[in-house]
């Protein structure tokens, strides 16, 4: 999409920068979550930086049965299946994909970002309910990713709208 100094172009640039920042932060948090989970699995005495108290423990959440395959894949593919990966692996894939699609022009990439972000928000609500009602825990890393996912959805919707405005301007 070519931009020639219009406010819609400026908006699109800001949206892309915001999307990139959010995705990069999401990747970093997902890598940290993966690190915490693998360290805790290797060493039960490991205390992560995000383990604040008994009810504010990210390692407790990451090593729970809900920390792999969203607690669901084990029933479909088996607990030891290579597809039953830590949620953080799915997070890295998600944020990298949305980052790439967010930088590429076109309606297909825009729609992909909206759909993936909407799905991630459904997953965030599911995992937040598990966190609160089942695990009775608060996880800073988890909640931060839920917030990132929400803002990614907003960026994705704004991007799609802005690209629509630019397409109309180009036709005129």
Automatic annotation (TrEMBL):
* One example of a Gene Ontology biological process annotation: vitamin K metabolic process
Recorded hits in CDD domains, A to Z, give: VKOR_euk
Q: Where in the cell is it found?
A: Endoplasmic reticulum membrane
InterPro entries xrefs = VKOR, VKOR_sf, VKORC1/VKORC1L1
Q: Give residue ranges for domain Vitamin K epoxide reductase.
A: 12-160
Keyword annotations for this protein, in alphabetical order, are: Disulfide bond, Endoplasmic reticulum, Membrane, Oxidoreductase, Quinone, Redox-active center, Transmembrane, Transmembrane helix
A single Gene Ontology CC annotation of this entry is:
endoplasmic reticulum membrane
Membrane topology per the entry is: Multi-pass membrane protein
- Listed GO MF terms: quinone binding; vitamin-K-epoxide reductase (warfarin-sensitive) activity
Q: Which residues cross the membrane?
A: 12-34, 88-106, 113-134, 140-160
- What top-tier enzyme class does this entry carry? oxidoreductase
The cross-references to Pfam families, in alphabetical order and at most eight, read: VKOR
Its EC number(s): 1.17.4.4
Q: Just give the chief location class.
A: endoplasmic reticulum
Return the protein name: vitamin-K-epoxide reductase (warfarin-sensitive)
């Amino acid at each position: 999409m070519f931009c020639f100094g219009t406010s819609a172009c400026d908006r699109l640039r800001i949206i892309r920068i915001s999307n990139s920042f959010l995705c990069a932060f999401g990747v970093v948090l997902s890598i940290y979550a993966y690190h915490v989970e693998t360290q805790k699995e290797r060493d039960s005495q490991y205390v992560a930086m995000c383990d604040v108290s008994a009810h504010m423990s990210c390692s407790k959440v990451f090593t729970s049965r809900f920390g792999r395959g969203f607690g669901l894949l084990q029933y479909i593919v088996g607990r030891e299946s290579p597809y039953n990966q830590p949620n953080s692996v799915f997070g890295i894939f998600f944020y990298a994909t949305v980052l790439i699609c967010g930088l590429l022009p076109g309606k297909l990439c825009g729609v992909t970002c909206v759909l993936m972000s909407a799905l991630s928000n459904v997953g965030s609500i599911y995992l937040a309910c598990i966190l609160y009602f089942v695990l009775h825990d608060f996880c800073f890393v988890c909640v931060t990713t839920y917030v990132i996912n929400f803002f990614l959805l907003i960026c994705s919707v704004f991007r799609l709208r802005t690209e629509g405005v630019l397409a109309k301007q180009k036709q005129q």
